[in-house]
Amino acid sequence: MKQLIECVPNFSEGRNMAVIKQITDQIETVEGVKLLDVDPGAATNRTVVTFVGTPDEVVEAAFRAVKKASEVIDMRHHKGEHPRFGATDVCPLVPISGITMEETVVHARKLAERIGDELGIPVYCYENAAFTPERKNLANCRAGEYEGLPEKLAKPEWKPDFGPASFNAKAGATAVGARDFLVAYNINLNTTSTRRANAVAFDIRERGRPMREGNPITGKIVKDEKGNDVYIPGSLKECKAIGWFIEEYGVAQISINLTNISVTPVHIAFEETCKKANERGLRVTGSEIVGLIPLKAMLDAGKYFLRKQKRSLGVSEEEIIKIAVKSMGLDELKPFKPEEKIIEYILRDKTEKRLVDLTLMEYANITASESPTPGGGSASAYIGALGTSLGTMVANLSAHKAGWDDRWKEFSDWAEKGQKIKDELLFLVDEDTRSYNLIIEAFKLPKGTPEEIAERKKAIQDATRYAIEIPFKVMQKAFESMEVIKAMTEHGNPSSVSDAGVGALCARTAVMGAFMNVRINASGLEDKDFINDIIAKGAVIEKEAKDLEAQILEIVFEKVK
């Protein structure tokens, strides 16, 4: 798997777009790096930038951006709502795929060393890249902010991990870290009071609030035996939060960093904040994602709110995301555009032409053209997807049927299963065509030298095997869908039983059509043991699909008499 890491530097400029562009332009000069998001904030006077790429390239792009920021941002004139201590305030690296946290730490420290040595900026390593437990917490590294740096740098215990222990008046200091995926999340309140927003923030954040003697607001802060403040923990783990007033929106917000969304997901942070705000006479009016969010976090949120409504979870990805957006008010302050906020959507190749993105008319027309693709294999996968969709539709209608409210989860489970199979079959629509193209490309390979001949032969055989495996997978998935369809003919909304029947016809057709493609592609493969095995398995699936179709249609015709 290709190694990918994300970098999310925060620059202390959120108002001058020309300055911000000079910084982000540096990121885009590095090959192998993709700039995903630039999110400026006027009130915070801070811009969160997100880019992703291979490790060495990300480190190079980050260094160039930090260098440019040190040239175009002057911290002596910086004012903003957010805590900060440098032109590049923080620069975390996040493992995305094919790379461990330990490996990411090595790259983070390499970046920190370059910034310190080559740019003369004091650098503190935090989170997983920290050299000492005290520096793991970013808040400790940034304590005192920019204005407190001269005094801080003079203390031996706060000697930077890299770079000089002297005050860089223009660039300040920078924190470089390696961390898990962090979601920056702001929740809007129906108040202008920063103090009240902070009260809610203290209620929810893991660190909580200082314990006080007597009066919980004005009492003397309790100290432990070492002289450190004693805290009353908040209700959410892996959550950092503060309250502030955002002048451009005219509301107070709770600014939250969720440092591990597998422990505290976004929707749980939202719900808990609603609860704590309500206890203090406040109301949450909406929220916003700062930067990017993983797709899973949005799907988990949407499904959470669907469960609360006792609605089926077996709806499309788009619908689940829409529920999440509306439930958490993510579009209150500005539109929430999934294609610009969800990291997996941004990483999609926008230039890739997929069959499943065509209109029905376009797909029919291209199939009817002189092109050999898409052919029967892709059509079989698509027919299977339609059959599964019909069974899923019946499940969703049943989950929503008046008088069947106590059965919503039963049908939701079936609908979820159907949606999963449908998505897999839609993937196979394009994958079948891709498998054919792989064979064509293999035949185009040079065949001059003995080595080239051997390499070409192997490529042809590998591609042919894949062109057999794909329609066989279509057979398996289409047959699997018949379990959903049969359950819906037996137990689903009686008014829709004919739809389930049509679904069974589609599923059986998909199985038989895909098996034809397995057989014809098998003629070009030399591995006879593989062929005999897959043909035998395919014959069993075909027979069972026909038998199951007959059972389903018998039920359908009995109910539509």
Helix and strand arrangement:
Blueprint: E1 4-7, E2 10-11, H1 17-27, E3 33-41, E4 46-53, H2 55-72, E5 88-97, H3 101-119, E6 123-127, H4 138-142, H5 149-153, E7 174-178, E8 183-189, H6 194-204, E9 209-210, E10 231-232, E11 239-246, E12 251-258, H7 266-279, E13 284-290, H8 295-309, H9 317-328, H10 338-341, H11 343-347, H12 360-367, H13 376-399, H14 408-443, H15 450-491, H16 497-522, H17 528-559
Parallel strand pairs: 5-7, 6-7
Antiparallel strand pairs: 1-4, 1-5, 2-4, 2-5, 3-4, 8-12, 8-13, 9-10, 11-12
What this model shows, in words?
- This protein is 51% helix and 14% strand.
- By secondary structure, the chain is of the alpha+beta class.
- It has three domains: 4-178, 2-Layer Sandwich (Formiminotransferase-cyclodeaminase, Chain B, domain 1), CATH 3.30.990.10; 183-347, Alpha-Beta Plaits (2-Layer Sandwich); 355-559, Four Helix Bundle (Hemerythrin (Met), subunit A) (Up-down Bundle), CATH 1.20.120.
- The two termini are 56 Å apart.
- The mean pLDDT is 94.
| Name of the CATH homologous superfamily of the largest domain | Formiminotetrahydrofolate cyclodeaminase monomer, up-and-down helical bundle
Q: Which stretches are poorly predicted, pLDDT < 50 over at least 5 residues?
A: none
Percentage of β-strand residues: 5-15%
| Number of distinct helices | 17
What's the shape? Answer: globular
What's the structural domain tally?
Answer: 3
Order of helices and strands: EEHEEHEHEHHEEHEEEEHEHHHHHHHHHH
How does the major sheet shape up?
7 strands, mixed
Indicate the CATH class of the largest domain.
Mainly Alpha
Radius of gyration computed on alpha carbons: 29 Å
Oligomeric status: single chain
The tally of beta strands, per DSSP, is 13
* CATH architecture level-2 label of the largest domain: Up-down Bundle
Overall mean pLDDT stands at 94
Q: Structural class per helix/strand content?
A: alpha+beta
What percentage of residues falls in helices of 4 or more residues?
40-55%
What is the CATH topology classification name of the largest domain? Four Helix Bundle (Hemerythrin (Met), subunit A)
